[in-house]
Amino acid sequence: MYEETTYTTSNEVHLRYPGTEDMDDNSTGIIWPPSYFSVPLKAQTAFNSNNIIVVVAAASATNTTIDLRELTKSGTLIQTVTIPGTGANAIRVSGSATSTLYASNSNDGSLFCFTGHNTTNTTSNVNTLQSSKVVVAVGNDAIPSVATTYTGSGTNQTRSATTLNNSNWFIGDQGGYYTNLSTSADPSGNVRSIKAFGGVAYASTASTSNPPVGVISSTTGGSFTGLSGLANGATSRQDFYLISSGSNGNTFDVLYVLDATSATAGTIFKYSLVSGVWTANGTYSTGVGGFSMYAEKSGSGVDAYITTGTGATSANSVRKIVDASGWNVTINATASTIYTAPTGMIIKGIAAAPKCPTVTLGTLTDATCFGSNNGTAVINSTQFNGSYTLNGGDPQILQTTLLHFGISNRFIYG
Questions:
Q1: Is the peptide bond before 357 cis (omega within 30 degrees of 0)?
Q2: What pTM was computed for the model?
Q3: 52-352 — its CATH code?
Protein backbone atom coordinates (compact mmCIF):
# COMPACT_ATOMS: atom_id res chain seq x y z
CA MET A 1 0.00 0.00 0.00
CA TYR A 2 1.29 3.46 -0.88
CA GLU A 3 0.00 6.72 0.43
CA GLU A 4 -0.28 9.38 -2.22
CA THR A 5 -0.67 13.14 -2.03
CA THR A 6 -1.89 15.58 -4.64
CA TYR A 7 -0.30 18.71 -5.96
CA THR A 8 -0.95 20.83 -9.01
CA THR A 9 0.90 22.48 -11.85
CA SER A 10 -0.58 24.95 -14.29
CA ASN A 11 -2.21 22.28 -16.41
CA GLU A 12 -2.21 19.02 -14.49
CA VAL A 13 -3.20 17.35 -11.27
CA HIS A 14 -0.63 14.84 -10.04
CA LEU A 15 -0.77 12.00 -7.55
CA ARG A 16 2.68 10.96 -6.35
CA TYR A 17 4.23 8.44 -4.00
CA PRO A 18 5.94 10.34 -1.16
CA GLY A 19 9.70 10.35 -1.44
CA THR A 20 9.83 9.43 -5.12
CA GLU A 21 11.67 11.46 -7.70
CA ASP A 22 9.68 13.73 -9.95
CA MET A 23 10.07 12.20 -13.41
CA ASP A 24 7.23 14.00 -15.13
CA ASP A 25 7.43 15.26 -18.69
CA ASN A 26 5.09 18.25 -18.31
CA SER A 27 5.07 18.90 -22.04
CA THR A 28 3.43 15.57 -22.82
CA GLY A 29 1.65 14.54 -19.64
CA ILE A 30 3.22 11.08 -19.93
CA ILE A 31 2.54 8.68 -17.05
CA TRP A 32 5.76 7.40 -15.47
CA PRO A 33 4.90 4.38 -13.26
CA PRO A 34 5.69 3.26 -10.70
CA SER A 35 6.77 6.62 -9.27
CA TYR A 36 3.49 8.45 -9.96
CA PHE A 37 0.96 9.22 -12.63
CA SER A 38 -0.53 12.44 -13.90
CA VAL A 39 -3.98 13.23 -15.25
CA PRO A 40 -3.89 15.94 -17.94
CA LEU A 41 -6.65 18.46 -17.40
CA LYS A 42 -8.70 18.62 -20.58
CA ALA A 43 -10.44 21.91 -19.85
CA GLN A 44 -9.55 23.17 -23.32
CA THR A 45 -11.53 20.35 -24.97
CA ALA A 46 -13.94 18.88 -22.42
CA PHE A 47 -17.51 20.16 -22.68
CA ASN A 48 -19.03 22.43 -20.08
CA SER A 49 -22.25 20.70 -19.08
CA ASN A 50 -23.98 24.08 -18.74
CA ASN A 51 -23.70 24.57 -22.49
CA ILE A 52 -25.54 23.23 -25.55
CA ILE A 53 -24.24 21.33 -28.57
CA VAL A 54 -25.42 21.58 -32.18
CA VAL A 55 -24.68 19.22 -35.06
CA VAL A 56 -23.62 21.16 -38.16
CA ALA A 57 -23.63 19.62 -41.64
CA ALA A 58 -20.90 20.95 -43.93
CA ALA A 59 -23.12 21.22 -47.02
CA SER A 60 -26.59 20.63 -48.40
CA ALA A 61 -25.52 17.39 -50.06
CA THR A 62 -26.58 13.75 -49.90
CA ASN A 63 -23.15 12.74 -48.61
CA THR A 64 -21.25 15.22 -46.46
CA THR A 65 -19.42 15.69 -43.18
CA ILE A 66 -20.36 17.21 -39.83
CA ASP A 67 -18.93 18.92 -36.81
CA LEU A 68 -20.23 19.56 -33.30
CA ARG A 69 -20.31 23.12 -31.98
CA GLU A 70 -20.42 23.91 -28.30
CA LEU A 71 -22.36 27.07 -27.55
CA THR A 72 -23.13 28.94 -24.38
CA LYS A 73 -26.81 29.56 -23.84
CA SER A 74 -26.30 33.10 -25.04
CA GLY A 75 -24.83 31.78 -28.30
CA THR A 76 -21.09 32.23 -27.84
CA LEU A 77 -19.14 29.59 -29.76
CA ILE A 78 -16.82 27.80 -27.34
CA GLN A 79 -15.30 25.17 -29.57
CA THR A 80 -15.81 23.11 -32.72
CA VAL A 81 -15.31 19.34 -32.53
CA THR A 82 -14.56 17.89 -35.94
CA ILE A 83 -16.04 14.47 -36.68
CA PRO A 84 -13.77 12.49 -39.06
CA GLY A 85 -15.14 12.39 -42.60
CA THR A 86 -12.58 10.08 -44.19
CA GLY A 87 -10.77 6.90 -43.23
CA ALA A 88 -11.85 3.98 -41.08
CA ASN A 89 -13.58 6.19 -38.49
CA ALA A 90 -15.41 8.39 -41.00
CA ILE A 91 -18.98 9.47 -40.29
CA ARG A 92 -20.95 10.63 -43.33
CA VAL A 93 -24.45 12.11 -43.33
CA SER A 94 -27.04 13.67 -45.59
CA GLY A 95 -27.09 17.41 -45.21
CA SER A 96 -29.84 17.84 -47.78
CA ALA A 97 -32.33 15.46 -46.12
CA THR A 98 -34.94 17.38 -44.16
CA SER A 99 -35.45 14.78 -41.42
CA THR A 100 -32.01 13.47 -40.41
CA LEU A 101 -29.47 14.28 -37.71
CA TYR A 102 -31.66 14.83 -34.70
CA ALA A 103 -29.66 14.99 -31.47
CA SER A 104 -30.46 13.69 -28.01
CA ASN A 105 -28.90 12.87 -24.66
CA SER A 106 -28.68 9.59 -22.81
CA ASN A 107 -31.05 9.19 -19.89
CA ASP A 108 -28.31 10.12 -17.39
CA GLY A 109 -27.17 13.08 -19.47
CA SER A 110 -23.61 11.77 -19.82
CA LEU A 111 -23.80 11.24 -23.61
CA PHE A 112 -24.65 13.42 -26.61
CA CYS A 113 -26.10 11.10 -29.26
CA PHE A 114 -26.84 11.15 -32.98
CA THR A 115 -26.82 8.74 -35.92
CA GLY A 116 -25.01 8.61 -39.23
CA HIS A 117 -23.06 6.30 -41.53
CA ASN A 118 -19.62 4.85 -40.88
CA THR A 119 -18.38 4.63 -44.46
CA THR A 120 -15.45 5.54 -46.68
CA ASN A 121 -17.89 6.19 -49.54
CA THR A 122 -17.86 9.95 -50.08
CA THR A 123 -19.99 10.14 -53.22
CA SER A 124 -23.11 7.95 -52.98
CA ASN A 125 -26.29 9.14 -51.32
CA VAL A 126 -25.80 7.88 -47.76
CA ASN A 127 -29.45 6.82 -47.61
CA THR A 128 -28.53 3.99 -50.00
CA LEU A 129 -25.78 2.74 -47.66
CA GLN A 130 -27.98 0.79 -45.30
CA SER A 131 -25.31 -1.51 -43.83
CA SER A 132 -23.21 1.40 -42.57
CA LYS A 133 -25.67 2.91 -40.09
CA VAL A 134 -24.25 3.75 -36.67
CA VAL A 135 -25.03 5.47 -33.40
CA VAL A 136 -22.40 8.04 -32.42
CA ALA A 137 -22.02 8.87 -28.73
CA VAL A 138 -19.93 11.73 -27.37
CA GLY A 139 -19.08 12.03 -23.70
CA ASN A 140 -18.07 15.00 -21.58
CA ASP A 141 -14.49 14.57 -22.86
CA ALA A 142 -15.69 15.62 -26.35
CA ILE A 143 -14.39 12.39 -27.88
CA PRO A 144 -16.85 10.76 -30.34
CA SER A 145 -17.17 6.99 -30.61
CA VAL A 146 -19.40 4.52 -32.42
CA ALA A 147 -21.71 3.10 -29.75
CA THR A 148 -23.37 0.49 -31.95
CA THR A 149 -24.30 -0.34 -35.53
CA TYR A 150 -27.42 -1.55 -37.33
CA THR A 151 -28.61 -2.36 -40.84
CA GLY A 152 -31.63 -0.64 -42.33
CA SER A 153 -33.58 -1.27 -45.51
CA GLY A 154 -34.25 0.40 -48.86
CA THR A 155 -33.36 4.07 -48.81
CA ASN A 156 -34.76 4.78 -45.37
CA GLN A 157 -33.03 7.52 -43.41
CA THR A 158 -31.36 7.07 -40.05
CA ARG A 159 -32.85 9.63 -37.67
CA SER A 160 -31.93 9.52 -33.97
CA ALA A 161 -31.00 7.43 -30.92
CA THR A 162 -30.96 7.38 -27.14
CA THR A 163 -30.22 4.96 -24.32
CA LEU A 164 -31.46 4.37 -20.81
CA ASN A 165 -28.35 2.56 -19.60
CA ASN A 166 -25.57 3.70 -21.99
CA SER A 167 -25.44 0.18 -23.43
CA ASN A 168 -28.74 -0.81 -25.07
CA TRP A 169 -29.98 1.64 -27.70
CA PHE A 170 -33.33 2.87 -28.92
CA ILE A 171 -32.71 3.86 -32.54
CA GLY A 172 -35.22 5.81 -34.64
CA ASP A 173 -35.23 5.24 -38.38
CA GLN A 174 -37.52 6.10 -41.27
CA GLY A 175 -38.32 2.40 -41.37
CA GLY A 176 -39.05 1.96 -37.67
CA TYR A 177 -37.33 1.14 -34.39
CA TYR A 178 -33.95 -0.58 -34.29
CA THR A 179 -31.45 -1.50 -31.60
CA ASN A 180 -27.88 -2.77 -31.29
CA LEU A 181 -26.80 -4.84 -34.33
CA SER A 182 -30.36 -5.33 -35.54
CA THR A 183 -31.12 -5.89 -39.22
CA SER A 184 -34.87 -5.28 -39.29
CA ALA A 185 -37.22 -2.79 -37.67
CA ASP A 186 -39.32 -4.01 -34.73
CA PRO A 187 -41.81 -2.43 -34.63
CA SER A 188 -41.95 -0.63 -37.96
CA GLY A 189 -42.93 3.02 -38.30
CA ASN A 190 -41.74 6.41 -39.51
CA VAL A 191 -39.76 7.66 -36.51
CA ARG A 192 -38.31 11.14 -36.15
CA SER A 193 -36.73 11.88 -32.79
CA ILE A 194 -36.11 9.59 -29.80
CA LYS A 195 -35.30 11.00 -26.37
CA ALA A 196 -35.06 9.70 -22.79
CA PHE A 197 -36.68 11.33 -19.78
CA GLY A 198 -36.92 9.90 -16.29
CA GLY A 199 -35.95 6.38 -17.34
CA VAL A 200 -38.49 6.23 -20.18
CA ALA A 201 -37.82 6.34 -23.93
CA TYR A 202 -40.11 8.67 -25.89
CA ALA A 203 -40.39 8.91 -29.66
CA SER A 204 -41.91 11.36 -32.09
CA THR A 205 -43.54 10.62 -35.42
CA ALA A 206 -44.60 12.70 -38.39
CA SER A 207 -47.80 10.75 -38.87
CA THR A 208 -51.45 11.58 -39.37
CA SER A 209 -52.48 8.24 -37.84
CA ASN A 210 -50.59 8.50 -34.51
CA PRO A 211 -50.12 11.14 -31.83
CA PRO A 212 -46.89 13.05 -32.45
CA VAL A 213 -45.23 11.83 -29.22
CA GLY A 214 -45.43 8.53 -27.40
CA VAL A 215 -43.60 5.96 -25.32
CA ILE A 216 -41.63 3.15 -26.93
CA SER A 217 -41.74 0.24 -24.52
CA SER A 218 -38.61 -1.72 -25.43
CA THR A 219 -35.46 -1.52 -27.53
CA THR A 220 -36.85 -4.30 -29.73
CA GLY A 221 -40.22 -5.96 -30.09
CA GLY A 222 -41.86 -3.18 -28.14
CA SER A 223 -44.80 -0.95 -28.92
CA PHE A 224 -45.36 2.75 -29.49
CA THR A 225 -48.12 4.18 -27.30
CA GLY A 226 -49.18 7.76 -27.97
CA LEU A 227 -49.40 10.09 -24.99
CA SER A 228 -52.89 10.29 -23.55
CA GLY A 229 -54.76 13.41 -24.64
CA LEU A 230 -52.70 14.09 -27.76
CA ALA A 231 -54.62 14.03 -31.02
CA ASN A 232 -53.10 12.43 -34.11
CA GLY A 233 -50.36 14.57 -35.57
CA ALA A 234 -49.31 15.80 -39.00
CA THR A 235 -46.51 15.15 -41.45
CA SER A 236 -45.04 18.52 -40.52
CA ARG A 237 -44.30 17.57 -36.90
CA GLN A 238 -40.54 17.83 -36.32
CA ASP A 239 -39.38 17.35 -32.73
CA PHE A 240 -40.39 17.53 -29.06
CA TYR A 241 -39.09 18.01 -25.54
CA LEU A 242 -40.33 17.17 -22.04
CA ILE A 243 -39.76 19.20 -18.87
CA SER A 244 -40.24 18.42 -15.20
CA SER A 245 -41.77 21.66 -13.93
CA GLY A 246 -41.54 20.74 -10.25
CA SER A 247 -45.27 21.30 -9.80
CA ASN A 248 -45.83 17.54 -9.63
CA GLY A 249 -42.69 16.22 -7.98
CA ASN A 250 -40.22 14.71 -10.42
CA THR A 251 -42.86 13.95 -13.06
CA PHE A 252 -42.12 15.18 -16.56
CA ASP A 253 -45.30 17.19 -16.89
CA VAL A 254 -44.74 19.84 -19.59
CA LEU A 255 -44.42 18.93 -23.28
CA TYR A 256 -43.42 21.06 -26.24
CA VAL A 257 -43.99 19.80 -29.79
CA LEU A 258 -42.31 21.56 -32.72
CA ASP A 259 -43.95 21.80 -36.13
CA ALA A 260 -42.75 23.43 -39.36
CA THR A 261 -44.51 23.78 -42.69
CA SER A 262 -41.76 25.94 -44.25
CA ALA A 263 -38.54 27.73 -43.33
CA THR A 264 -40.61 30.77 -42.35
CA ALA A 265 -43.64 29.10 -40.75
CA GLY A 266 -43.39 27.06 -37.57
CA THR A 267 -45.44 26.34 -34.46
CA ILE A 268 -44.64 25.23 -30.93
CA PHE A 269 -47.49 23.39 -29.23
CA LYS A 270 -47.45 23.35 -25.43
CA TYR A 271 -49.14 20.69 -23.27
CA SER A 272 -49.26 19.97 -19.55
CA LEU A 273 -49.97 16.64 -17.84
CA VAL A 274 -53.12 17.17 -15.79
CA SER A 275 -54.63 14.19 -13.94
CA GLY A 276 -52.89 11.78 -16.32
CA VAL A 277 -54.02 13.53 -19.52
CA TRP A 278 -51.94 15.86 -21.68
CA THR A 279 -53.84 19.14 -21.88
CA ALA A 280 -53.26 21.82 -24.53
CA ASN A 281 -51.74 25.10 -23.30
CA GLY A 282 -51.75 27.13 -26.50
CA THR A 283 -49.30 27.63 -29.36
CA TYR A 284 -46.49 29.95 -30.37
CA SER A 285 -45.66 30.86 -33.98
CA THR A 286 -41.92 30.76 -34.57
CA GLY A 287 -41.81 32.62 -37.90
CA VAL A 288 -38.63 30.70 -38.70
CA GLY A 289 -39.81 27.11 -39.17
CA GLY A 290 -38.10 24.75 -36.74
CA PHE A 291 -36.34 21.39 -36.95
CA SER A 292 -34.76 20.26 -33.67
CA MET A 293 -35.50 21.24 -30.07
CA TYR A 294 -33.90 21.27 -26.63
CA ALA A 295 -35.46 22.81 -23.51
CA GLU A 296 -34.81 23.21 -19.80
CA LYS A 297 -36.56 24.60 -16.75
CA SER A 298 -35.65 28.20 -15.96
CA GLY A 299 -37.17 29.67 -12.83
CA SER A 300 -40.93 29.20 -13.08
CA GLY A 301 -40.77 28.96 -16.87
CA VAL A 302 -38.81 27.22 -19.60
CA ASP A 303 -35.97 28.16 -21.94
CA ALA A 304 -36.33 26.33 -25.25
CA TYR A 305 -33.80 26.24 -28.08
CA ILE A 306 -34.72 25.35 -31.65
CA THR A 307 -32.75 25.07 -34.86
CA THR A 308 -34.51 27.13 -37.52
CA GLY A 309 -35.56 26.18 -41.03
CA THR A 310 -36.79 22.78 -42.14
CA GLY A 311 -33.79 20.52 -41.54
CA ALA A 312 -31.91 21.40 -44.74
CA THR A 313 -31.93 25.20 -44.61
CA SER A 314 -28.43 26.63 -45.14
CA ALA A 315 -27.05 29.36 -42.87
CA ASN A 316 -29.87 28.74 -40.41
CA SER A 317 -29.81 29.66 -36.75
CA VAL A 318 -30.32 28.65 -33.16
CA ARG A 319 -33.30 30.47 -31.71
CA LYS A 320 -33.82 30.82 -27.94
CA ILE A 321 -37.49 30.88 -26.98
CA VAL A 322 -38.35 31.81 -23.41
CA ASP A 323 -41.73 30.61 -22.16
CA ALA A 324 -42.37 32.69 -19.04
CA SER A 325 -45.39 30.61 -18.03
CA GLY A 326 -45.23 27.39 -16.06
CA TRP A 327 -47.14 24.15 -15.76
CA ASN A 328 -50.69 24.19 -17.14
CA VAL A 329 -50.48 27.87 -18.09
CA THR A 330 -50.85 29.16 -21.65
CA ILE A 331 -47.53 29.57 -23.42
CA ASN A 332 -46.13 33.10 -23.17
CA ALA A 333 -43.01 33.20 -25.33
CA THR A 334 -40.42 35.65 -26.50
CA ALA A 335 -37.58 34.75 -28.88
CA SER A 336 -34.11 35.82 -29.96
CA THR A 337 -31.51 34.46 -32.36
CA ILE A 338 -28.32 33.47 -30.55
CA TYR A 339 -26.19 31.77 -33.22
CA THR A 340 -26.14 31.50 -37.02
CA ALA A 341 -24.40 28.87 -39.14
CA PRO A 342 -21.72 29.90 -41.62
CA THR A 343 -22.77 30.28 -45.26
CA GLY A 344 -23.50 26.93 -46.88
CA MET A 345 -23.63 25.01 -43.60
CA ILE A 346 -26.74 23.64 -41.85
CA ILE A 347 -27.44 23.43 -38.13
CA LYS A 348 -29.27 20.14 -37.59
CA GLY A 349 -29.79 18.60 -34.12
CA ILE A 350 -29.44 20.32 -30.76
CA ALA A 351 -29.14 18.91 -27.23
CA ALA A 352 -27.43 19.56 -23.91
CA ALA A 353 -23.68 19.25 -23.58
CA PRO A 354 -23.01 15.91 -21.85
CA LYS A 355 -22.29 15.79 -18.13
CA CYS A 356 -19.57 13.80 -16.45
CA PRO A 357 -20.92 10.41 -15.35
CA THR A 358 -21.23 9.41 -11.72
CA VAL A 359 -18.07 7.64 -10.61
CA THR A 360 -17.11 5.50 -7.64
CA LEU A 361 -13.57 5.58 -6.30
CA GLY A 362 -13.21 2.68 -3.90
CA THR A 363 -15.25 3.49 -0.82
CA LEU A 364 -16.13 6.93 -2.18
CA THR A 365 -19.60 5.74 -3.04
CA ASP A 366 -21.08 9.22 -3.19
CA ALA A 367 -18.31 10.72 -5.32
CA THR A 368 -19.84 12.48 -8.28
CA CYS A 369 -18.02 13.88 -11.28
CA PHE A 370 -19.74 16.85 -12.82
CA GLY A 371 -18.76 19.41 -15.45
CA SER A 372 -17.79 22.89 -14.29
CA ASN A 373 -14.86 25.30 -14.51
CA ASN A 374 -15.08 25.40 -18.30
CA GLY A 375 -15.22 21.65 -18.56
CA THR A 376 -12.86 20.65 -15.74
CA ALA A 377 -14.48 17.81 -13.87
CA VAL A 378 -14.90 18.00 -10.13
CA ILE A 379 -15.05 15.33 -7.47
CA ASN A 380 -17.79 16.35 -5.05
CA SER A 381 -18.03 14.15 -1.97
CA THR A 382 -18.89 14.46 1.69
CA GLN A 383 -16.50 11.55 2.27
CA PHE A 384 -13.50 13.42 0.86
CA ASN A 385 -11.66 13.81 4.18
CA GLY A 386 -9.53 10.72 4.64
CA SER A 387 -7.68 7.90 2.91
CA TYR A 388 -9.40 5.66 0.38
CA THR A 389 -8.62 2.63 -1.73
CA LEU A 390 -8.85 2.92 -5.49
CA ASN A 391 -10.91 0.18 -7.15
CA GLY A 392 -8.70 -2.73 -8.15
CA GLY A 393 -5.60 -0.82 -7.09
CA ASP A 394 -5.47 0.58 -10.61
CA PRO A 395 -4.41 4.22 -11.01
CA GLN A 396 -5.79 4.21 -14.54
CA ILE A 397 -9.28 4.59 -13.09
CA LEU A 398 -8.46 8.24 -12.45
CA GLN A 399 -7.67 8.86 -16.08
CA THR A 400 -11.41 8.97 -16.73
CA THR A 401 -11.86 11.59 -14.01
CA LEU A 402 -10.31 15.05 -14.00
CA LEU A 403 -9.66 16.28 -10.50
CA HIS A 404 -10.45 19.81 -9.50
CA PHE A 405 -7.54 22.07 -8.53
CA GLY A 406 -6.80 22.32 -4.83
CA ILE A 407 -7.76 18.83 -3.66
CA SER A 408 -5.41 17.99 -0.79
CA ASN A 409 -6.85 14.69 0.38
CA ARG A 410 -5.01 11.38 0.40
CA PHE A 411 -5.52 8.22 -1.62
CA ILE A 412 -4.27 4.70 -1.00
CA TYR A 413 -2.93 2.85 -4.02
CA GLY A 414 -2.01 -0.81 -3.79
A1: no
A2: 0.80
A3: 2.120.10.30
